[in-house]
Amino acid sequence: MLLQEVKEQVFKLPPSDRLALVSAIIESLQEQPVPRADRSDAIQRMRGLLKTDQPAPTDEEVAAMLDERRVERYL
Q1: 26, 18 in Cβ contact below 8 A?
Q2: Which of 6, 24, 42, 57 could cross-link 61 (Cys pair, CB 3.0–4.6 Å)?
């Protein structure tokens, strides 16, 4: 059965049956563990997004940035 056919059949169901179907679908998805390799690959990609050629800001620079932001926001 194609997805479009399933959708058509679902809309013919009463709301309570559609809700039960949604619950069953969610349960089936929760039972599927996310492979560790996928998670670790995603983490490595996210770390790559944070990389920069510049050194990390000092505590004083961070405090100055926060002060600037507060001034922009509240004044």
Answers
A1: no
A2: 57
User: Hunting for tokens 């920069």 — which residue is that?
Assistant: 52
pLDDT at residue 34, rounded to an integer: 62
Q: Give Cα separations from 67 to 3, 56, 58, 59, 72 (angstroms).
A: 54, 18, 14, 12, 9
Q: Distance between CA atoms of 45 and 37, rounded to whole angstroms?
A: 12
Taking a C-beta distance cutoff of 8 angstroms, is the pair 19, 27 a contact?
A: no
> Position of tokens 């800001």?
57
Radius of gyration for the alpha carbons in the chain, expressed in angstroms and rounded: 25
Cα 42–45–48 angle (5° rounding)? 155
Rounded to a whole number, what is the largest CA-CA distance in the chain? 63
